[in-house]
Design a protein that fits this description.
The structure is a homodimer of 155-residue chains. Chain A has 155 residues and is mainly alpha-helical. Chain A contains nine helices and two strands. Chain A has a domain of 39 residues. In chain A, a hairpin with a 5-residue loop joins strand 1 and strand 2. Chain A is globular, with a radius of gyration of 19 Å. Chain A binds a DNA duplex (30 and 30 nucleotides) through helix 3.
Chain lengths: 155, 155
DNA sequence: TAATACCCTACCAAATTAGTATGGTATTAC
DNA sequence: GTAATACCATACTAATTTGGTAGGGTATTA
């Protein structure tokens, strides 16, 4: 139903927690306790955001995780892609494989445009925005206002 | 992976086909042949868009389907919702059920804003836009241009 | 009354996702 | 150099969702 995965959501929660404590390293257990997530789930989440370069992991005693990038530099798109790979609304626009319904498929390729718009929106919203609801509200209204001013060419 | 379902895509293809012939009624077989989809799949697609009121069905001999609304009045959002129900990126923002991680969930509620933006974009693009790629390109550029002019408040 | 063509429900198989378990490896402290 | 800490990698299971299919029912028209 056009949903993002739960893990993506968890990822945002964890990043928020890491942003909260700044440079202080936190272990898996710390994070689990702070967020209310289970330890195994946190582990899974950490792998994704470490691989994406959003978080730095240090092993061994005295190890732990700390955020690698300033919250204002982490976009929602970064997080979504860390968990769900490259975004593409349809198979057509993503892979290079041809779809079966060749004749009608020229139409489907238009999803690409919608896809780009979605990417743009997700890229323009940062972890910092998310963390401050009142700021995010303002941002939200700004974008909606702009969209409302757009005259559709064919109407 | 933040995908729309194949059926939704098919729905758009079928609606395009119906729009092509205007007021002429088409049977399931006609549509299947014209689009390259299988008959059972077309049946499933038709149910969704008939229920959504986008297409009118007439039974009996001489029956068939015809488009119920002008293509310029059918938004991509209409089609997506016909197949995938109300759009909500997270469970939190959709249902009234409480999520388990209570403390951190205030953060998750910010998905709502992103959700609204997505709805807005999908609602502003019509079947007519989709059918004319060059028009849709223009539209696309317009929206992206507007988005680019937005200054994020916290940067 | 028979032919046409939509309608409804249910079923099956494949893919995806969430959650869990387990053994391995790097770093630090003593 | 050994033990404790804590991250790492892989794999497995169960639940959910999705796509595709089947079969019998009902309305309309000739």
């Amino acid at each position: 139903m056009l949903r993002i995965g739960k893990l993506t959501d968890y990822g945002l929660v964890v990043l928020n927690q890491l942003a909260l404590v700044g440079a202080v390293k936190q272990s898996t257990d710390d994070i689990a306790q702070a967020t209310g997530l289970t330890v195994p789930t946190v582990r899974k989440v950490m792998k994704a955001i470490v691989d994406a370069g959003l978080v730095i992991a240090q092993r061994g005693s005295k190890g732990g995780y700390r955020i690698a990038v300033a919250p204002a530099q982490i976009s929602v798109l970064d997080v979504v892609q860390a968990f769900e790979g490259p975004i593409s609304l349809t198979e057509c626009s993503a892979d290079d494989n041809q779809c079966e319904i060749t004749e009608s498929c020229s139409l489907s390729s238009n999803w690409t445009g919608i896809n780009d718009l979605l990417l743009r929106v997700l890229r323009d919203i940062t972890l910092d925005d998310i963390r401050h609801p009142e700021v995010q509200d303002t941002l939200h209204h700004q974008i909606v206002d702009q969209l409302q001013r757009i005259q559709l060419v064919n109407l």
